[in-house]
Design goal:
The chain has helices at residues 7-22, 31-44, 50-59, 63-73, 85-98, 117-129, 147-155, 168-174, 190-193, 227-238; strands spanning 105-111, 137-144, 157-159, 175-177, 185-188, 196-200, 213-218, 241-249, 262-266, 269-272. By secondary structure, the chain is of the alpha/beta class. 40% of the residues lie in helices and 20% in strands. The chain folds into two domains: 7-73, Chemotaxis Receptor Methyltransferase Cher, domain 1 (Orthogonal Bundle), CATH 1.10.155; 85-272, Vaccinia Virus protein VP39 (Rossmann fold). The strands form two sheets. A seven-stranded mixed beta sheet has the order 6-2-1-7-8-10-9, with helices on one face. The protein binds S-adenosylmethionine. S-adenosylmethionine binds at residues 22, 24, 74-78, 82, 112-114, 118, 144-146, 149, 201-204, 219-221, 224, 250. The site of S-adenosylmethionine has 25 residues, from loops.
Amino acid sequence: MKTITDEASALSYLVEQVYRRCRIQLRDGKQSMIRWRLSKRMRANNLEGLTAYAEFLRTKASDEEWTQAIDALTTNFTSFLREEEHFQFLVRQALPSVLQRGQIQFNIWSAACSTGEEPYTIGFYLSEHYPLDRGWSWNLCASDISTKVLASASRAIYAEDRITTVPTDWRKKYFQVGTGEWAGHYRVRSALSDRVQFRQINLIESYHHAHSFEVVFCRNVLIYFDRETQLQLVRRMCGFIKPGGFLITGHSESLTGLDLPLRCVKPSVYQLT
Ligand SMILES: C[S@@+](CC[C@H](N)C(=O)[O-])C[C@H]1O[C@@H](n2cnc3c(N)ncnc32)[C@H](O)[C@@H]1O
């Protein structure tokens, strides 16, 4: 590609590279978002403007700079108890259906877990319905492409305004209240956070798990990919779901029409056939 000399070519270069590297389609109308999200990277590299930064990425940037740029550009929005029916479905229908008679151990994967609210919410529900002190034994794997969100997820510390969706009794039960310089912050108690193993996984590349999962949450990430990429990504994921296990996508995501070994149980909930 030739030298980037104006903002329009800078934008199209960034859009193309982000697509090539992680299959996220930064759609039209996202220009100001791109500019705003990369402004910190421009400052860190003493570069003024998107054109200079894109040219820097094209010619001189390290892999680390690319990771930081992609971290800045990918949308990490999440919240505790987001799309809550999925967690109700997990404990009331999915697990009772997939667990074999007498099975007390199971594994759940939150793929694209962002800053951790999703796996910890799964943990709240499992602690309520499948308590460890009654003999259940479960583990949560939580992964994301972004090292930045994973660092924040494993710290498990949230400002008060991030936990407003958590019922008061669960706040007491599952969080420690910060004091001193941590006043106004809450940390997920280690009894729960220790059950979550965080890993960096790029869902569009090959990866491996030591075991398969009864239920996989892959929510609000498929939306960024084109249909062909969704197909390959979900097909690979199906290889890590136990027979009769479940895949849960975001409410606005649908796998209808894709050739996959899944049957749709209800919108956004699929079962391995
Ligand atoms: C909108 S958040 C969804 C968080 C959570 N699943 C939820 O529904 O609240 C999307 C996450 O997908 C991650 N992501 C984007 N592309 C990815 C990829 N290729 N592999 C793994 N994670 C990816 C982003 O870093 C971001 O944290």
